[in-house]
Design a protein that fits this description.
Blueprint (H helix, E strand, L loop, with lengths): L3 E5 L1 E6 L12 H10 L2 E6 L10 H14 L3 E4 L1 E2 L8 H7 L3 E4 L12 H10 L6 E4 L3 H13 L3 E3 L5 H12 L4 E5 L1 H5 L2 H7 L12 H10 L6 E2 L8 H5 L13 H11 L4 H16 L8 E11 L18 E11 L2 E5 L2 E2 L6
Parallel strand pairs: 2-3, 3-4, 5-6, 6-7, 7-8, 8-9, 9-10
Antiparallel strand pairs: 1-11, 11-12, 12-13, 13-14
Helix pairs in contact: 5-6, 6-9
Bound molecules: (4S)-2,6-dioxohexahydropyrimidine-4-carboxylic acid and zinc ion (2 copies).
């Protein structure tokens, strides 16, 4: 028997929509169709595009394109680059947040020198979050910089027990540190990486079962949000000699989390906090009027590569049975998804 419940439209605080420069992987049209099919009505998109969004001119052009093409709300973060520090004050007036890459990942955006980092933490407006890609000891560096500069910091995709434990300690000291976790770090481990090879390679890489247990224990307490880090790459790229890191996640996050609700590992209230209230609070975004999603908590199905809206056309979760399915999405009074399918959408 169906068990239908209505929830707010969800916010994914961390996706890669690849425009400009990577439209063969994803674009604003396909990425936001995938978002809607996954129950997300708002996306925060990362600036590690080609070229990266590190100047006001580039950021404005990309945001304008997003505003025209996207089927749900898209807010672009600006990127921090050592050679474009002077652009930060103007970007800080417009962008929803700043993304800072302190460690190696996909694309050339990176900042490691202390003078650049200090100037960035000092120069970005207090009211707009700084989100960092920081792994291991870089998490400590990010927290230290934020504390020294008297401002908040948001740690992206925590993946290791030691990171979560350090963030919990920082918060216990009263430091304004928030963080997010990805579905792949919650539902996969290094064993899956060994099985799936490039199809489960991403940054941060998958952790151990012990890391995974720490992430689940911290969910909704030390960990504020689930954010997908939707990072599409084509099958040809993943099969190639140098497969780029990253996996798609927009269409599988909600069914995986609903399955956890079914298993009793998560409550619906906490799911809403992780995917709506907390990301909105951190980025200062209002609720969307007349916007909701409807899910069937009892529907059984199997996640699959077929019927995905993401242009990359695959998921590391293919073959996984889950209980819980998205039925309908309404954004500002308009029904955009019915029976799990995006309405008025021309599929290629
Ligand atoms: O695996 C990743 N892929 N991690 C990141 O931080 C970036 C992302 C991408 O853009 O492909
Ligand atoms: Zn990252
Ligand atoms: Zn990312």
């Amino acid at each position: 028997m169906a068990t239908i419940v209505r929830l707010p439209g969800l916010t994914d605080a961390h996706v890669h929509l690849r425009s400009p420069g990577g439209e063969h992987k994803e674009d604003f049209i396909t990425g936001t169709a995938a978002a809607l099919a996954g129950g997300f009505t708002r996306l925060l998109a990362m600036p590690n595009t080609q070229p990266p969004l590190v100047t006001l001119e580039r950021w404005l052009a990309a945001q304008e394109r997003a505003d025209h093409e996207a089927r749900c709300d898209v807010h672009l973060l600006a990127g921090a680059a050592p050679e474009h520090l002077a652009a930060l004050p103007a970007l800080g007036q417009r962008a929803v947040g700043l993304k800072l890459y302190m460690d190696e990942t996909y694309g050339p955006l990176r900042m490691t020198a202390l003078p650049h980092l200090a100037a960035t933490f000092d120069g970005w407006p207090q009211a707009r979050p700084i989100a960092v890609h920081a792994e291991g000891a870089s998490v400590a560096a990010a927290i230290g910089l934020a504390a020294a500069c008297g401002r908040a910091v948001h740690i992206c995709h925590v993946s290791r027990r030691a990171e979560v434990e350090l963030i919990a300690k920082a918060r216990a000291q009263g430091l304004p540190v928030t963080c997010e976790v990805t579905p792949h770090h919650l539902f996969l481990t290094a064993d899956d990486a060994a099985r799936l090879g490039p199809w489960a390679d991403m940054r941060p890489t998958l952790g151990s079962a012990d890391d995974q247990a720490a992430l689940w224990a911290a969910l909704g307490q030390t960990i504020d949000c689930v954010a997908t880090d939707h990072a599409p790459h084509t099958p040809a790229e993943k099969r190639g000699a140098n497969p780029p890191p990253g996996v798609p996640g927009l269409e599988t996050a909600l069914p995986l989390l609903l399955d956890a609700v079914h298993d009793g590992r998560l409550t619906l209230e906490r799911l809403v906090a992780l995917l709506d209230t907390n990301p909105r609070r951190i980025y200062g975004l209002p609720a969307q009027h007349e916007s909701w999603i409807e899910v069937d908590l009892a529907a059984r199905h199997t996640l699959a590569n077929e019927c995905l809206y993401t242009k990359c056309g695959w998921t590391p979760f293919a073959g996984r049975p889950v209980v819980g399915r998205l039925l309908r999405v309404c954004l500002r009074g308009r029904l955009l998804v019915d029976d799990g399918r995006v309405l008025d959408y021309q599929e290629e």
